[in-house]
Amino acid sequence: MKSPVLTNQDKPIPASLTHETVLSVHHWTDKLFSFRISRPQAFRFRSGEFVMLGLFAEGVPLLRAYSMTSPSWDDTLEFYSIKVPHGPLTSQLQHIKPGDKLLLGKKATGTLSLDSLTPSKSLYLFSTGTGFAPFASLIRDPETYDKFERVILTHTCRAVDELAFGKSILTALKTDPLVGELTNNCLLYFDSVTQEPYRRVGRITKFIENETLSNIIGQPPISQNSTRAMICGSIEMTQDMSTVLKKLGLSAGSAAKPADFVVERAFVD
Ligand SMILES: Cc1cc2nc3c(=O)[nH]c(=O)nc-3n(C[C@H](O)[C@H](O)[C@H](O)COP(=O)(O)OP(=O)(O)OC[C@H]3O[C@@H](n4cnc5c(N)ncnc54)[C@H](O)[C@@H]3O)c2cc1C
Predict the structure, then answer these.
(1) Which of 127, 178, 196, 247 has the most CB atoms around its CB within 10 Å?
(2) 6 has a pLDDT exceeding 70
(3) What is the mean pLDDT of residues 195-218?
(4) Structural class in CATH, domain 114-265
(5) In the chain, what are the domain boundaries?
């Protein structure tokens, strides 16, 4: 199929954006794909942050927030995307191919950064769906393991095949020359699905409250003394998870006021 992506390479772009080249694309399911683009030398970000990304549609930049899944040290930028039926951006973005041009904001931002948390022993990264994206960045950054002895990543999706991108990153990490050894010692992974049979079916809040999570990963239950956390998912998930963490004595923080946990919505409803 010919790409319908409207990447007008000759058109002048706003000063806040750069034009980047698509390097590779991988379709994980009919609803999810990941891609790599070139990284401008001047583009700086902290692992876990997001940026505005998009393309020209009818001559006008069409941009959406996207978390980098690649770590801050990577030479290229990787993203993980939903395909929203009739979504203004993703109905076009899903057709990109290597060589196409995308628009990238010059400034990254976000609350899911290590600087937003006070020091502790364990870091929990709670995600649903594409909320996995910022954590794919953080688990590939050695700084995460400098700051925390133990990193526990949870990913909950509707269907089993929606876990595939995350699993491929975890598999590649095992032999990663930079962080492979660190992750083999420090990183624990807990997955579940909500809408079809799997080894674990249910929401992460249920697995925390009935202590399945701590039993399966072999770690003490979450407590303010030893746990910091980041949450990224739907509005319902971020609200429910925040309530659970607050009940356990953790308080919400931000870059301006580091505390026990930080939250970012994976999309706006
Ligand atoms: C801080 C932040 C970071 C984000 N990071 C990512 C990311 O890394 N990957 C990504 O795919 N999206 C991400 N998003 C969502 C993204 O900005 C767009 O909403 C998404 O690309 C769809 O764009 P669209 O124009 O096709 O549809 P939109 O008009 O933007 O969205 C239409 C509807 O689709 C649903 N929707 C949108 N995005 C998602 C999603 N990711 N998962 C489930 N349902 C969704 C919502 O109900 C939304 O109202 C992020 C959003 C925010 C606020």
Answers:
(1) 127
(2) no
(3) 97
(4) alpha beta
(5) 17-105, 114-265
**Mean pLDDT computed over 202-211:** 96
Q: What is the pTM of this model?
A: 0.96
Greatest C-alpha distance within the chain: 57
Q: Does residue 69 surpass a pLDDT of 60?
A: yes
Nearest-angstrom CA–CA distance, 111 and 49? 7
69 lines ligand 1 (CB under 6 A): no
Residue 121 CA to ligand 1 center (angstroms) comes to 32
Please tell me the distance between residue 66's alpha carbon and the centre of ligand 1 in angstroms: 8
**237 Cβ below 6 A of ligand 1:** no
Q: What is the pLDDT of residue 256?
A: 92
Find out whether the beta carbon of 158 lies less than 6 Å from any atom of ligand 1.
no
User: Does the Cβ of 165 fall within 6 Å of ligand 1?
Assistant: no
CATH homologous superfamily of 17-105: Translation factors (2.40.30.10)
Residue nearest (by alpha carbon) to ligand 1 atom 19: 267
Distances (CA, A) of 128 to 14, 203, 242, 253: 33, 9, 14, 20
